[in-house]
Structure formats: structure tokens, C-alpha cells
Amino acid sequence: MTTIGYLGPRGTFTKLAVDTAFNGEEKIGFETIPECIDAVEQDVIDIGVVPLENAIEGTVQLTVDYLVHQVRLPVMAEIVVPIQQHLLVHPNFIGGFEKIEEIHSHSHAIAQCHQFIHKSLPKANIRYSSSTGRAAEFISNSETQQIAAIGNKLAAKEYGLKILQENIHDYPNNHTRFVVLTKSEELLKIKHSKKGDKTSLLITLPDNQPGALHQILSAFAWRKMNLSKIESRPTKTGLGNYFFIVDVDQQYDDVLFPGVKGELEALGCKVTILGTYPVYLMEL
């Protein structure tokens, strides 16, 4: 049986993505993103699923940096999941927002609900946890009932919590991209039709070359290759040194991509293919 790892415990959005995308496999939760990625690299699990980007809060930098600097695993698929954040309380909780003294959740979930917290829970103290699932678990096991967690309906169901307020995220079009990592593409059996294809490139610019970024973008532009994302991250070799992650909305081919790679390498850039993969859009 295929084993799939995810950012756990039960009740996280990553677990929700895994449950939506895969059938019947053994699923194992990990406390952190690096632990899940390491487990794939060390063959402890067959497939790892970790969050990459949220529509409201942007890139999950830990995922990007770990895949670039620590463990190079190819991205084999992308799962896009709609995110609905709810205010969860103990089943014995009585009262309204004014009774809540603390809010527990992952930092990204807290940030996605900033305006709701600011307006409805201004006096509540914020406590960060490793995941939304861990926050829900804490609320479930706590003897203090004047606390709440931010999480999804799966977390509420898994830990027997009450949803005090639904859809507390600040913006309605809230989605998260999850990447699927595995050494064996043959193991992927995602139970949805794909939305499209994508190829991700890691590009390192030559030192102190004026106009280098413009030249990089031009290499894609004149070939009419659509870029859905371009993001800079520090190389961790000194101030002012960056690499770029570029997402191209098409599958790797034997004409356009080698042409881009050759042109950029002629400019002194280093180009690495991080993955070419199908994209799946899930409906909850």
C-alpha cells in the first residue's frame, strides 16, 4: 500500500487536501514541513504533500527554502484546495465572542483572519501552533473553555469541536496550493481530472549584470510562454544575492524549454528544473 505523508495532525488543511485527492492509501501526519519532506527523501513514506502558497498570505517560505537548500525532490503534482476558516470552540463553550480569551492556530491561518480578529476579538491573545489541526486538538483537550481555534470543518469533526462562526477569513477567494513530492511518478493516482500543467524553474542570476532580470523575462516573452508566478528568494550566501522561482503554465517540452535554458545559460544564469507536473483543482 502506498504511504502518503502530510503536515499533521488530523484536521489540517493538508490532510483535507490528501483526503480529497487520494483514495485508500495509508496516511501519516508529520509535525513539521521539513519532517514530511525528509520522510520522502529517506524512503520512510512514498509520497509527501506540503503547502506551497496561499492566495491571501503568499508563499510558504519554509517549503520553498527547504526544497531548494536542503532536500531536492521533484514536484510531481499540484493540488489547489479552497480554504474556509472557521472559529472553533470546545463543545461545552457557552457565550459569544466576548468570552474568548485566547485564539490558537497556525500563523498563516491567523493572518488570513486578521480583520475578523481585529474587529470581533480585539482583546483575545493570539497563540501560534504548528498547524490548525494541532490548535484544534489543544482546544479539545483543554480544561479551559474560554479559548478558541481557527481551523476547518474536518478539524471540528475530528476533535469534537463546535463551530462558533463560519467563514471568518478576510477574503472569499481563499485557496492554497499544495505540492506533491515523490521519487516515483508511477505511485501517483490522484482521483480528479487535471486542470492544466505547470513547470517550475529555479534561476540564479549572474553577479552584478545590469538588466539580467529583464533579459530572463524576455526569453519567455518572445516565445509566448505564460508565467503565472515569479518570486525572488535569498540564496543565503550574502546580502543582495537572490535566486528566482518561475512557474510556467505549460508542460516541459523538447523545443521551448531547452531554448529558454540555453539562452539563459548563455547570459550566465544557472537554470534548474524543479518539476513539470499536472495541476488539480479540488472542490470540497
UniProtKB/TrEMBL annotation:
<dbReference type="InterPro" id="IPR008242">
    <property type="entry name" value="Chor_mutase/pphenate_deHydtase"/>
</dbReference>
<keyword id="KW-0028">Amino-acid biosynthesis</keyword>
<dbReference type="InterPro" id="IPR002912">
    <property type="entry name" value="ACT_dom"/>
</dbReference>
<keyword id="KW-0057">Aromatic amino acid biosynthesis</keyword>
<dbReference type="GO" id="GO:0005737">
    <property type="term" value="C:cytoplasm"/>
</dbReference>
<protein>
    <recommendedName>
        <fullName>Prephenate dehydratase</fullName>
        <ecNumber>4.2.1.51</ecNumber>
    </recommendedName>
</protein>
<dbReference type="Pfam" id="PF00800">
    <property type="entry name" value="PDT"/>
</dbReference>
<feature type="domain" description="Prephenate dehydratase">
    <location>
        <begin position="3"/>
        <end position="183"/>
    </location>
</feature>
<feature type="site" description="Essential for prephenate dehydratase activity">
    <location>
        <position position="176"/>
    </location>
</feature>
<dbReference type="GO" id="GO:0009094">
    <property type="term" value="P:L-phenylalanine biosynthetic process"/>
</dbReference>
<keyword id="KW-0456">Lyase</keyword>
<dbReference type="InterPro" id="IPR018528">
    <property type="entry name" value="Preph_deHydtase_CS"/>
</dbReference>
<keyword id="KW-0584">Phenylalanine biosynthesis</keyword>
<dbReference type="InterPro" id="IPR001086">
    <property type="entry name" value="Preph_deHydtase"/>
</dbReference>
<feature type="domain" description="ACT">
    <location>
        <begin position="201"/>
        <end position="278"/>
    </location>
</feature>
<dbReference type="Pfam" id="PF01842">
    <property type="entry name" value="ACT"/>
</dbReference>
<dbReference type="GO" id="GO:0004664">
    <property type="term" value="F:prephenate dehydratase activity"/>
</dbReference>
<comment type="pathway">
    <text>Amino-acid biosynthesis; L-phenylalanine biosynthesis; phenylpyruvate from prephenate: step 1/1.</text>
</comment>
<dbReference type="InterPro" id="IPR045865">
    <property type="entry name" value="ACT-like_dom_sf"/>
</dbReference>
